[in-house]
Structure formats: structure tokens, C-alpha cells
Design brief:
The protein is mainly β and 1227 residues long. It has ten helices and 76 strands. The radius of gyration is 52 Å and the shape is flat.
């Protein structure tokens, strides 16, 4: 009894194509034969789902004459898809389908699209055209492994369907065995597989040969031996195509795949897919073979999955390994029987084909032994795979050379769009090549792996990765494109071509690429120090040397030399920035002298003229021999003497140092200068300090004119108390006959003279005792008499318990001295202020005069400003000064421009530009004198000048906003004009702001409104009906209500604001006939999902109302675009409990259900809802698509509930006057 035959494309599927000379040679510049669309060959391919394992014997290929099978009438489900046409969903998958197409009186034309497993681009099986005359009719027949839906495009109509379901495919008879096809293995070597017969003789019926020989025979007739197109479309030669022999391909499979498959097939078929082998994966290597750090990884390989991936992506191996074959095409002469004709379609095979396999073992769905069959009804002319679309190139980066002075290399990534044409013309794999434009006439470099042992290259499988961030794009990479050092750049064209499982290639698609090798590495200056040496007094120029540490990277290029340049600069601190610009060499002194500093390399050994250099280890803490001992990043210490650093005028000297490298390899490129490295050398000189005696100052004079000081001394053990004596500078000098100090002498100089007088004659009689009774404390407050100019001195003597004073001191060190300070106070200055024009506005012109003849000499001026009159009454309440003037500059001119050390400011003039305002600005000035600390004189401030006011108006005409026109409600002809100004309402010091208003209405002889009024006189309330009028609606906000006599009349408004200077701003508005409505506004459309319920889209409307204006409402139109062109339909397979999901195989999931009644109406493929706002319900109905509204204040919130996926949502709100706003968002 024959085993049951099962047709299940999810487990075992096959495909075929008619091959023409045009398909084989279209890409050849000189094809070996004429191109023709007549079939010459028929290629067959098949694949097995790993879940059912491998058959127990070779496959069998059958054929039958493609005579129509017996069909029965069927009633598909009909769906209308305007404007495209009608979709007819079959009740179950069909292998043969006939359509009765009819035309009306005008004829009919269009296309019929056949689908499998859903409706979409990836589900298209074929597109067949039709063209019928008036009242014409035809029967269109189509056969496939299975058909699940038909789309009728155009004006034709279908009167009926007939077909043969896949479930009845075993009833098709007339099959004849053509060939046995199996694995190319030795029968003896595979005889250990129980109940299996692999390696038996195979081949065409009656001419069977050993399995490897049979593989070679079908290889000769079942593949495209000519490969991809020979040239790029831009003329470059494509990568060389090398056709491996079947023996070579079998040897490739014998290395790993077939031995692993042999082991897997020892298991029952249902367990074979779970058989795996682990392989060690070493860390990645760069193009030079250097392996990345890290532990080896592990790869788990399933032999059955690897086998199916191989035969589904490599047409050559598909035939060799027993999953494909081919035959010379046999054309059957056409037959005509009445109205029916057979074998007359040259685009369709005259033969049906079928491939069967026998499975045996536990777990088979129909018992221990079952035969799976795959139909290939009437193969059609082969379609080339789609060429790569939207080819893009991304530059990934450069790889450094594998060895020093080797070529750099570039890495790139190519990507293009995947076209989901799985059933119509599926891409199996692709080829990539790179044509170097510097080598014309040479074949492009292939960017594919070489076969394991066979010649040629492996095509790259068109695999998909669920984790791919760009699932809709395919990609390929070129990780190593060498860039020669001379000329240092490359130009290339990359090409990508795709092939289908029959080995038919698309044209090449190319993109250009240009790249250059990176610039030479920058020199890393890791440390730089400028070290000066003190030459001893009195020299100011110090010799110095430069100590620099650099790091050079030797991995990519060996250096020939390193040049330095540097700029010396005087620096007030060790953080000052250097001046701009760099000399051509290293500057050695501040005057600009330079010297050339260059490191030269002889092999690994560096040298520098006029200096020394050491090779260091990588840490820089030890010297090593130059070369490999330093590693790949080599560190050097350079010492350069010969610097002359002059510190006569600066405490620090900085050096900005840069370096650049020159490569040893021709053409000896020079790199860029490194960023400046800053080094600072501080003055190293040390000198003895000349200490000047200091005279402390008392407090400023009190109300009585006396200056106060506090004397303090250390307690003396055994002292019963202390007596204090006092004298002064003039007394001591007069007693000794010494002259008094000159007027310009400093306090220190006077103290020295005073101490010398005491030391020459320490006469006690020159001092007067201060206290009558003993002081027991160790401090005493003393006062200097009013107006005293002398330095005063005090001597403290301890007194014993017996009343004996200590001996009188003989040196001046016993004196405690103080002097009363003096304050240099200039006379109050005079100030003049006037308004001037400046640019587009105004400013204050200020003149300040000092009086040096009355008081101290004024060296500085401070200018104060305030807008508050009360604050101007006192200088200290006017805030910080707005200007501080010491010399000409900063917009101020002084006389003299730069006062000498003993000079003063006589006159200062300048401009101050405060912000414009209609209030007074008050100015005051003070003069300041410099202090003379060495003479005991403190700098003082004069009394303030009188406060002077001035008005600095705002720049430009008075501010007046645009007129905002709106409908205020009420009468339809009413117009509300709103405007704003921050012009002061009250009268300003220069006068009042005036508003002129004029409103004209069409057809009226006189203006509706004409007024000239000060802002302070405008009313605060709107006019009562029926009057028009003006009022102040809020501070700074004004409104003008125009009540038109007729809503159909046009009108105009003119608002003019005039400031006290006569400057004016004017706004004019033209009002058209009709109601004045603000345009409706719509927010962006937001969305969120509710688990198990669908998605909600929301947006907000503004400037809308629920009522009507002149009988017209506000209307909302919502358009919903479904995610698919029709509801996605899943088709159950009878007798098949389930399959492995994959490309071309239906995935689990529910379909879309549209309720019979809904707010939305289907039109032109979109769901439409168009309604007045007032008619939108507050609560959304329970429907597939529903809309609801909720008014919040002046806004209206719209919600759209969608229980099915949408591609896009768009909405438009339209007002009664036709104004509208629209928004759109992706679903």
C-alpha cells in the first residue's frame, strides 16, 4: 500500500522557472547567442522545513502535461476595495483556479493579482493582464502551489470561480517519473543509516548513475554557469566570475556539512532539527591578522538548518546537494478544441512538475511512513530579482596599518532597501564588488568570502535578523580597502547585484566612494618646563633651558623628524594666555630671537642639534635603549639650553610650544602643528629686603578734631605700675638743633630723622609725663591734639613697688609713635546735563567741571543716576555709580586726557544712554582725590554736585501693537478691535500722549467714530448699545467696538498714537463684509494605547463654537487610513496542524472586524467621519472606530477610539467662513 501523500508548503515547498537566453546573457556586452524570450531550460528548486527532518531516500521529480484539471465551482468571500477593485478570498487554498471575466458595453481592461498567505506585496504570486472588447468574456486560468486570494483591478467583473483545492491535489493524475535527485554521497559510507537509502544511484529515469555523477549531470543542465553581469553600468569590469565544478562543490560540503548531516540523520526525522554541534569562535581579527583580546566564543550549528540555508541562498549548491535540477525545455505543440486551446502560452510551461520525498519514522503525522509532495504547476518565465534600491554608502572609519609604514585602509558599509516580493521574485543572495578607479581595465575586487576549497566566491545570503535595527534594509561591508601612501587617496565604485534561487542575476547597482589616508599623527607634548637660573645681582637676564617630554606613535608611521616652534611672552601671572601667532622656530628671548629645534631620527635613534635627548620607557621614569624597548608609543625627553629670560619688567615668562612630525615614508608628509603646550618660568632672583620703618596712623579726627590711638605694652614682672611720657617730632628736632623735614618727605623718612635725633640726645626733659597716678593696666588710649602735623612719640616706664622708675631708655626703639591722618577732599564739582539725539533715540550729554583751586586735586570722578526723585536727594541713596572716570576712554573725554601723577581732571564730558522713559532721570557727580599713604594722607570724596534732571524719551515712535480684529458676539456686524501700548497714561514732563481714532463704514456719509483724545481721558467702560466707541479694557490694553449698520458692509479702522514730541505710530485695518471670526486652531494629534482595547488619538480645538453663524456650523472631518489595504486574512490549512513560521508562511494572528453600523463611512479606502461639532457625541459608541468630544472652557477636546491598527489619522476643522486647520499623524 502506497504511503499517504501530503501537500503542505509549510513543510515542503518547491518552485520552478522557465529560463531564456535573455535571462542568461542580458548582462553580457557580447552575448554568445541571440537574446530571446523563448524558453530554453526549466529550473526546479525545493526546500524542506527542518522540523520534519530529511527524507529516507532521494527525492523524485515527476512531470505531466499541463492539461487543465477537473475544477468545481467555488464561492469566495468578496471584499470591495475602492478605487482599486475587488478582492476575492478563497474558502481554502487552491492549486488551480479559473475566473470567468466579463466586460460591459464599453469593454474592460486591467490586471488580476493572485496572492498566497495574505494580501500584500510579499504575498503576490503573479499579475496577469486582461483586455476585453465590448460585452466580451474570457476564462482566465491560473495554477500555483496554492492560491488564497485574487484581486481584480480595472473595469472587468467576475461572473464566477471554479478551482481545485489543495486538499484534493492528490487527485491530479498523469504523472510520469523524470529523475531521482538526492545527496551526492557514497552509498557505502551512508549505509549505516537504518531504514534509509542515501547514495543509491540517481539521475534521469533509465540512465541512473552513482550519486556524485548524477550531481554532476544535473549541475550541467540545472544552473546558470555564466554568473552575474560582466560590467558595472558605469563601465567598470565586475568581479571575475569563476564557476566551480560539481566535484569541487561536493568537496566543500564534505569538509563539514555532510559529515554533520550524516550524524543528525541517525535520529528520527522529528528529532533531526534539534541536533547541533558546537564550534569554537576565536576573537575577531583585523585585516592584518592581529586578533582582538578576549576569550574564544562558542557557536552552535544545526546541520539541517545550515543545509536549508545553503540550498536556499546558493543556486549552485542547491543543485549539487540534491535540492534542485534542470532540464532542456520541451515545447508541446498547441492544441485547439473548439473554444478551448492548450499549450499555446509561450510564457508558461506546457508541463506541470512535482517533487516528492519519503519520510519514515516515529512522529510522522500520518503514521510511520508518509510521502510529502510539492507541486510546481506550469512554471512561468523567470523574473530577474529586483535590483538593489536606494543604495547608500556609509564610511565607517580607517584601520591603521598592520606594520609601520604600511598602507592605511578604509572600512565602509553599503545598504539598500529590501523589496518584499517573496513569491513573485524573491532575492536569494547577492554579490558585492569594489572597482578601484585607479586601476582601469582590472576586474573589481569581490567583497565575498571564497569557497572553502572550490574556486570562486560564496554569494551572501539575503538573511533577515529579527534584531536588525533596519529590518527593511539589507547591508554589506568592506572592512579592508587599502589606501596607498602615495598618492594617499582612493576612488572606487561599489557594486551590488542580487540573484534569485535559479541563479538569475539583477544588473549591478553602483555608488561612488572616495577616501584619503588620515593626516600624520599629532605630536603629544606631555610635559614642558622652562627652567631659569639666577645669575646673581644686579643682572635681570637669567639663562634658561627648555625641558620637554613628547610621545610619538610608531604603529602607523615611522618619523623622520619632529620640528618645534614656540613663542615667549611676558606674563603677569602663571595663567595668562599667550598672544596670537607663532614664529617659525623656537623664540629664545623676549626680543624675538629664535633658534631651530628639530629632532632627527636615524632608524630608531633620535638626535637634536645643540641639545640632548633621552629615550624613556612608557611611564617616563627610566631611560631605555631607543627602539622596541620603548613600545609602540615612544616617549622622549628633550633638553634645549640657550634661553635668555629678562625679568626686568615682568615677574613671569611664558612659553607656548608646538611640534609637528614629518614621516619617513615617501612622500614624507608633514603633520599639523600640535595644540600649544604652555610652560611658565617665574623670576628666580633672590635679593635682600630693605625694610622701611612704618608710622601707624590714629583714627580720623573726632568731633573735637582729635585723633585717637591705643598704646599697649607687655607686662613686666614685679612692676607696681607704669608711667607714660610723651613728646613729638618737632620738639625732638628742635632740641637737637636739627632741621624739620621738607614738605614732600614721607612719614618713614621723618621717623628716621626723629629717631636719629633721640638717639643723638635721649634727653628726658624733652618728654612730658602723661599720667599722675600709676597705671596698672598694660594699655592706654591717647589723643593727638587737633591740627597737629607732627609725629608723636610715647615712652612707657615701669615703676617698682618702692616707687622707683626704670632707667630712661637710651635708644629710640623704646618709642611708640603715631601720626594723625589727613584726608584729601576735593571741592564739589559742577554738572550740566542736556538731552541729545543719538542714533534712532536719545541720550544725555553730560559735562562735569571740577575746582582744583578749592580743596584737594580731583583725580577721579563718579557719576550717579536715578529715576526716583526722592532717591536723588542724597547721593548714598542713588545706588552704584554708572560711570567712573579717571582718564579719556570708554565714551568719556577728560581735560587733560591722561592726568600726570601730580595733575588732576579739570573737565569731563561724555554721553549716558539710559533706557528710554518719559520720567525724569536725575544725575549727580562727586570728585575723588588720591591718597598718599607714605605721607599719611587718605583719599577723600567731595560733597556731591546738585541733582540735575533730564528726560530721555524712548527711541522711535510710540509703541502701538497691531490691531487684533475679532467678533465680540452680539450683532453679526459687530467688530472688536483690540490693541495695546505701554505709553504712559498720565501726562509726562514733556506733555501728554494723544490717541486719534477714525472708523469708516461703507455706504455711510460720515465716519462712525472720529476722536482725538489724551490717553488719560479715555473711558474705562465699553459703550452701551447701539453706540460704537473706545475704552481702556485693562492697563495698557485698549478696545474699539464698531457696530456696523449692515453686516454686508466693509469698513476700515485707523488708530494713530502721537507722543509729546510729535512722533506718531499708526495702525490701519480693513474689514471685509461678513462676520469676522478667528480661524479655528487644532493642536497636534497625540496617541496612546490601551491594552486589549486598541489605540486612542486625541487633539484639542480652539476658536470654535457649538452654535451656527449665519446658518453655518463649525465642521470636523476625520480620515482614518487602515494599516493594510484590506483586512489581513489568514487561511487555515486543512489537515495541517501547524507549520514553522517564516518568509512566505502565514503567522498566527486575528483579522480585522468592521461592525455593520459605525460613525465612520468607508470611502476610497479610508474611513471618513464628517459632522458639525454640536452633533459629535459626548460618549463614544462601542464601535471599531468612534469619535467623542468634551468641552473644557473655550477649548474642545476630541477623542478617537480605534480598535484596529491604522496607518495614519488626519483631521480638519472648518469654520462657518471656510477658514480651516488640519493635522496628520502616523498610526
Amino acid at each position: 500500500m502506497a504511503p499517504p501523500r501530503i501537500f503542505d508548503p509549510t513543510a515542503f515547498k518547491a518552485q520552478g522557472a522557465l529560463i531564456t537566453t535573455r535571462a542568461l546573457f542580458k548582462g553580457f556586452p557580447r552575448p554568445p547567442t541571440d537574446l530571446s524570450d523563448a524558453p530554453r531550460l526549466v529550473f526546479l528548486r525545493w526546500q524542506v522545513n527542518p522540523r520534519i527532518g530529511m527524507p529516507v531516500e532521494p527525492f523524485k521529480v515527476w512531470r505531466r502535461q499541463a492539461i487543465p484539471v477537473e475544477e468545481t465551482a467555488i464561492e469566495p468571500e468578496r471584499l470591495t476595495l475602492p478605487p482599486l477593485g475587488q478582492i476575492h478570498v478563497m474558502p481554502e487554498p487552491m492549486v488551480s483556479l479559473s475566473l470567468d471575466l466579463r466586460a460591459g458595453s464599453s469593454g474592460a481592461a486591467g490586471n488580476v493579482v493572485f496572492f498566497a498567505d495574505g494580501i500584500g506585496f510579499e504575498n503576490i504570486l503573479a499579475i496577469l493582464p486582461y483586455n476585453l472588447g465590448a460585452n466580451g468574456a474570457t476564462v482566465m486560468r491560473f495554477q500555483a502551489a496554492y492560491v488564497t486570494a485574487v484581486l481584480i483591478l480595472g473595469t472587468g467583473s467576475v461572473q464566477g470561480f471554479a478551482g481545485l483545492p489543495q486538499s484534493a491535489a492528490d487527485k491530479i493524475g498523469g504523472w510520469e517519473l523524470v529523475e531521482t535527485v538526492g545527496l551526492p554521497v557514497d552509498e557505502g559510507g551512508w549505509s549505516d543509516l537504518a531504514d534509509q537509502n542515501h547514495g543509491v544511484k540517481q539521475g534521469l529515469v533509465g540512465a541512473e548513475v552513482p550519486a556524485p555523477d548524477a550531481a554532476a549531470q544535473r549541475y550541467a543542465r540545472g544552473i546558470n554557469p555564466f554568473g552575474w553581469h560582466q560590467t558595472f553600468p558605469t563601465g567598470e569590469i565586475a568581479p571575475a566570475w569563476t564557476l566551480p565544478s560539481p566535484k569541487d562543490l561536493i568537496a566543500d560540503a564534505d569538509t563539514q556539512l555532510l559529515p554533520m548531516l550524516h550524524e543528525a540523520m541517525r535520529l528520527p526525522p522529528a528529532d533531526q532539527a534539534g541536533f547541533t554541534r558546537d564550534f569554537q569562535i576565536n576573537p575577531p581579527e583585523n585585516p592584518s591578522g592581529q586578533q582582538m583580546s578576549g576569550d574564544p566564543g562558542r557557536a552552535t550549528i544545526a546541520p539541517l538548518t545550515l543545509l536549508q540555508m545553503t540550498v536556499s541562498t546558493d543556486p549552485l549548491q542547491a543543485v549539487t546537494l540534491g535540492f534542485g535540477t534542470g532540464y532542456l525545455y520541451e515545447d508541446i505543440p498547441g492544441i485547439t478544441l473548439g473554444a478551448m486551446s492548450f499549450f499555446d502560452d509561450k510564457g508558461v510551461s506546457d508541463w506541470d512538475f512535482m517533487v516528492t520525498g519519503l519520510w519514515r519514522g516515529e512522529g510522522m503525522r500520518a503514521g510511520r511512513e508518509v510521502e510529502f509532495a510539492a507541486l510546481i504547476p506550469r512554471p512561468r518565465l523567470v523574473l530577474p530579482p529586483p535590483a538593489p534600491a536606494d543604495l547608500a554608502l556609509d564610511f565607517l572609519g580607517h584601520h591603521q596599518p598592520a606594520a609601520p609604514d604600511g598602507p592605511w585602509s578604509a572600512a565602509t558599509r553599503l545598504s539598500w532597501e529590501r523589496l518584499p516580493l517573496d513569491n513573485l521574485s524573491r532575492v536569494a543572495s547577492f554579490a558585492a564588488g569594489r572597482a578601484d578607479l585607479a586601476q582601469p581595465g582590472q576586474p573589481a575586487h569581490p567583497l565575498m568570502e571564497r569557497r572553502a576549497t572550490a574556486p570562486g566566491h560564496l554569494p551572501i545570503g539575503d538573511a533577515r535578523n529579527p534584531q536588525d535595527p533596519e529590518p527593511t534594509r539589507q547591508s554589506a561591508s568592506d572592512s579592508f580597502y587599502p589606501i596607498p601612501n602615495d598618492p594617499g587617496s582612493v576612488s572606487a565604485r561599489y557594486g551590488i547585484a542580487t540573484q534569485n534561487i535559479f541563479g538569475i542575476w539583477s544588473p549591478w547597482v553602483v555608488t561612488a566612494f572616495d577616501s584619503s589616508q588620515p593626516d600624520p599623527d599629532a605630536v603629544q607634548i606631555v610635559d614642558a618646563n622652562l627652567v631659569p637660573t639666577d645669575p646673581g645681582p644686579p643682572a635681570t637676564v637669567c639663562p634658561g633651558e627648555l625641558r620637554v617630554e613628547i610621545v610619538l606613535d610608531w604603529r602607523a608611521r615611522r618619523p623622520a623628524s619632529v620640528a618645534f616652534r614656540g613663542r615667549l611672552f611676558a606674563s603677569a601671572t602663571r595663567h595668562d594666555d599667550p598672544p596670537a601667532g607663532m614664529p617659525g622656530a623656537v623664540q629664545t628671548d623676549l626680543a624675538g630671537a629664535t633658534r631651530i629645534v628639530t629632532i632627527s631620527f636615524a632608524g630608531d635613534v633620535p638626535s637634536v642639534a645643540g641639545g640632548s635627548i633621552l629615550a624613556l620607557n612608557s611611564q617616563g621614569d627610566a631611560t631605555v635603549a631607543p627602539g622596541p624597548a620603548q613600545g609602540s608609543s615612544r616617549r622622549y625627553r628633550l633638553i634645549v639650553p640657550g634661553f635668555s629670560l629678562d625679568y626686568a619688567a615682568t615677574p613671569h615668562i611664558g612659553l607656548a610650544l608646538s611640534a609637528r612630525l614629518q614621516e619617513r615614508l615617501a612622500p614624507m608628509r608633514t603633520g599639523a602643528w600640535s595644540p600649544p603646550k604652555l610652560a611658565y618660568a617665574s623670576d628666580p632672583r633672590a635679593r635682600l629686603t630693605n625694610i622701611m620703618p612704618i608710622v601707624p596712623l590714629t583714627s580720623l579726627p573726632d568731633a573735637g578734631g582729635q585723633g585717637h590711638a591705643r598704646l599697649s605694652w607687655a607686662a613686666l614682672p614685679g612692676a607696681a605700675g607704669y608711667v607714660v611720657y610723651t613728646s613729638n617730632e618737632f620738639t625732638l628736632l628742635d632740641r637737637t638743633g636739627q632741621p624739620r623735614a621738607a614738605p614732600d618727605a614721607t612719614l618713614s623718612q621723618r621717623l628716621v630723622a626723629m629717631q636719629a635725633a633721640f638717639d643723638a640726645d635721649p634727653d628726658r626733659n624733652a618728654f612730658t609725663r602723661v599720667n599722675d597716678t600709676l597705671l596698672t593696666a598694660t594699655s592706654l588710649d591717647v589723643a593727638i591734639p587737633r591740627g597737629s602735623q607732627a609725629i608723636h612719640a610715647w615712652i612707657v616706664l615701669p615703676v617698682s613697688a618702692g616707687g622707683t622708675e626704670a632707667p630712661w631708655p637710651m635708644t629710640s626703639s623704646a618709642m611708640i609713635v603715631y601720626a594723625a591722618p589727613k584726608v584729601a577732599e576735593p571741592a564739589p564739582p559742577r554738572i550740566e546735563v542736556r538731552r541729545i539725539e543719538q542714533g534712532a533715540g536719545f541720550a544725555a550729554r553730560i559735562r562735569v567741571e571740577t575746582r582744583a583751586d578749592a580743596g584737594a586735586r580731583p583725580r577721579h570722578l563718579k557719576l550717579y543716576r536715578t529715576r526716583v526723585a526722592d532717591a536723588a536727594r542724597a547721593l548714598d541713596s542713588m545706588g552704584l555709580p554708572v560711570a567712573e572716570i579717571s582718564a579719556s576712554g570708554g565714551g568719556w573725554s577728560t581735560t587733560p586726557p591722561a592726568p600726570a601723577a601730580d595733575g588732576w581732571i579739570d573737565v569731563a564730558t561724555g554721553t549716558d544712554a539710559p533706557g528710554g522713559s518719559w520720567k525724569h532721570v536725575w544725575y549727580r557727580a562727586v570728585a575723588l582725590a588720591d591718597g598718599l599713604p607714605q605721607r599719611g594722607v587718605l583719599g577723600g570724596r567731595s560733597l556731591a554736585s546738585p541733582a540735575v534732571p533730564v528726560v530721555i524719551p524712548p527711541a522711535g515712535p510710540p509703541p502701538l501693537s497691531a490691531l487684533a480684529l475679532s467678533w465680540p458676539g452680539g450683532g453679526p456686524g459687530d467688530v472688536l478691535a483690540s490693541f495695546a501700548t505701554d505709553a504712559p497714561v498720565a501726562e509726562t514732563p514733556l506733555g501728554a500722549h494723544i490717541l486719534e481714532v477714525e472708523a469708516l463704514e461703507q455706504g455711510l456719509p460720515a465716519p462712525v467714530i472720529r476722536r482725538r483724545i489724551a490717553l488719560a481721558e479715555i473711558a474705562a467702560a465699553a459703550p452701551a448699545a447701539p453706540d460704537s466707541g473706545l475704552w481702556r479694557s485693562a492697563p495698557g490694553q485698549y478696545s474699539l467696538l464698531l457696530r456696523r449698520a449692515d453686516v454686508t458692509h466693509s469698513a476700515s479702522l485707523t488708530i494713530r498714537l502721537i507722543d509729546p514730541l510729535g512722533r506718531a505710530s499708526e495702525r490701519v485695518a480693513a474689514i471685509g463684509p461678513g462676520v469676522l471670526l478667528p480661524p479655528p486652531q487644532m493642536s497636534e494629534i497625540d496617541s496612546f494605547s490601551i491594552a486589549g482595547r486598541g489605540k486612542v488619538f486625541t487633539f484639542t480645538l480652539a476658536n470654535t463654537r457649538d452654535d451656527m453663524i449665519n446658518g453655518q456650523p463649525w465642521r470636523l472631518r476625520i480620515e482614518l487610513a487602515p494599516a493594510t489595504i484590506v483586512p489581513p486574512t489568514r487561511f487555515p490549512r486543512r489537515g495541517v496542524p501547524g507549520g514553522l513560521p517564516g518568509r512566505g508562511i502565514p503567522l498566527p494572528g486575528g483579522g480585522l472586524t468592521i461592525r455593520g453600523r459605525t460613525q465612520f463611512t468607508l470611502s476610497d479606502g479610508k474611513w471618513i467621519y464628517d459632522a458639525a461639532l454640536a452633533s459629535i457625541p459626548v460618549t463614544a459608541p462601542d464601535e471599531t472606530f468612534a469619535a467623542a468630544r468634551q468641552r473644557v472652557g473655550d477649548s474642545l477636546r476630541i477623542s478617537i477610539m480605534a480598535k484596529s491598527a491604522l496607518r495614519a489619522v488626519s483631521a480638519t476643522i472648518t469654520g462657518p467662513d471656510g477658514a480651516s486647520d488640519s493635522k496628520r499623524v502616523r498610526g
